[in-house]
From TrEMBL:
Domain of life: Bacteria
Entry's Gene Ontology BP terms: allantoin catabolic process; purine nucleobase metabolic process
GO molecular function: allantoicase activity
Pathway annotation: Nitrogen metabolism; (S)-allantoin degradation; (S)-ureidoglycolate from allantoate (aminidohydrolase route): step 1/1
Allantoicase domain sequence ranges: 35-180, 201-344
Reactions performed catalytically: allantoate + H2O = (S)-ureidoglycolate + urea
Hydrolase found in the keyword field: yes
Keywords, comma-separated and alphabetical: Hydrolase, Purine metabolism
Gene it is expressed from: alc2
Annotated protein name in UniProt: Probable allantoicase
Length: 345
């Protein structure tokens, strides 16, 4: 998602000028966190196709080999000898409008593809790789061990992607940044939904620190598997507290909240609180300053080690529909999952 920590609550969000705004402003639609999956490939002899969608940055393990050769963190095909090119089909967990992509060849130096193309479509059934697709990124040159960014102007949502590489080789990661388009069922609009879930389109907008763990997992499904599966800040040595801002999947009335400190035993926060607001439109930098003055949804509550904390009823203020929340922890520590449940507005 291209997130960066904030040095303080008053400084603007730092953006690397070499990185396009779409990386910071939109969620990665191709993330497994949203249920996206690499379902078919022309070939993945050297490196499994599933690795290309992993959320963590690609790594390089010197001297590590498997039965097919050098182990590489990404999708890699064998050397093509009969003409043609290789391709990969991706099913998005949540349909969305693509705003830009990052084709990352990190650690692929003598085995990267010279070019790549990304296409998409919306289909209720698995599409034919050889069928008609809409171009999202036309054939673009690739280089060794680098991020390759391309903006996308197609306004229509897609739920399938086809990455073509020419003619063969390896890609470490594919990031597809865009806006989720969630089609709510009649039952969902009438009942309770998880407003914060990444799979539903919830996303992290900003945070002041995320030194440890994997901050994106805060909105994931299920309980954390270990202490690295969640949001954890460094030890705070100055006054104040740590915080994170979440954009809900859709505006809604929050009726209950879960704060899960699974596996955080000697480093869980002492207390937490939530503020919330209905925000029509605002840049992330502006939201940080605004969020300090949002009304309280949940007053300060004590937390315990390795436990699910539920808050509802009289614990929550009647704020009406909200679209964004600021989750405060006091003074620092780690939280595995944050879940906000309620009714769509």
């Amino acid at each position: 998602m291209g997130l960066r920590p904030f040095p303080s609550e008053t400084e603007p969000m730092h953006r690397d000028p070499a990185v396009p705004d779409f990386v910071y402003d939109y969620v990665n639609l191709a993330s497994p966190l949203l249920g996206s999956e690499a379902v078919a490939a022309s070939d993945d002899f050297f490196a499994d196709k599933a690795r290309i969608l992993q959320d963590q940055p690609a790594t390089f393990l010197p001297g590590v080999f498997d039965e097919h050769g050098k182990w590489m963190d990404g999708w890699e095909t064998r050397r093509r000898r009969g003409g043609g090119n290789d391709w990969l089909l991706i099913r998005l967990g949540v349909p969305g409008v693509v705003k830009g992509v990052d084709i990352d060849t990190s650690h692929f130096t003598g085995n990267y593809p010279p070019g790549a193309m990304l296409e998409g479509l919306f289909s209720e059934t698995p599409p034919d790789p050889a069928g008609r697709w809409r171009p999202l990124v036309r054939t673009t040159p690739l280089g060794p061990s680098a991020h390759h960014y391309a903006a996308v102007s197609d306004p229509e949502p897609v739920n399938w992607l086809k990455l073509s590489i020419f003619p063969d080789g390896g890609v470490a990661r594919l990031r597809v940044h865009g806006a989720p388009v969630r089609a709510w069922t009649e039952a969902e609009t009438a009942g309770e939904v998880e407003l914060s879930a990444a799979r539903n389109g919830g996303r992290i907008i900003a945070y002041n620190d995320a030194h440890y763990g994997d901050v994106l997992r805060l909105l994931a499904e299920g309980r954390g598997t270990n202490m690295g599966d969640g949001w954890e800040t460094r030890r705070r040595r100055e006054p104040g507290n740590d915080w994170i801002i979440v954009a809900l999947a859709a505006p809604g009335i929050v009726e209950r909240i879960e704060v899960d400190t699974a596996h955080f035993k000697g480093n869980f926060p002492d207390r937490c609180s939530l503020q919330a607001a209905l925000v029509e439109q605002a840049a992330p930098q502006a939201l940080v300053a605004q969020s300090m003055f949002w009304p309280q949804l949940l007053g300060e509550k004590a937390l315990e080690a390795d436990a699910i904390h539920g808050f509802a009823g009289a614990d929550l203020a009647a704020l009406g529909p909200v679209s964004h929340v600021r989750f405060n922890i006091f003074p620092d520590g780690g939280v595995s999952r944050l879940r906000l449940f309620g009714r769509l507005a």
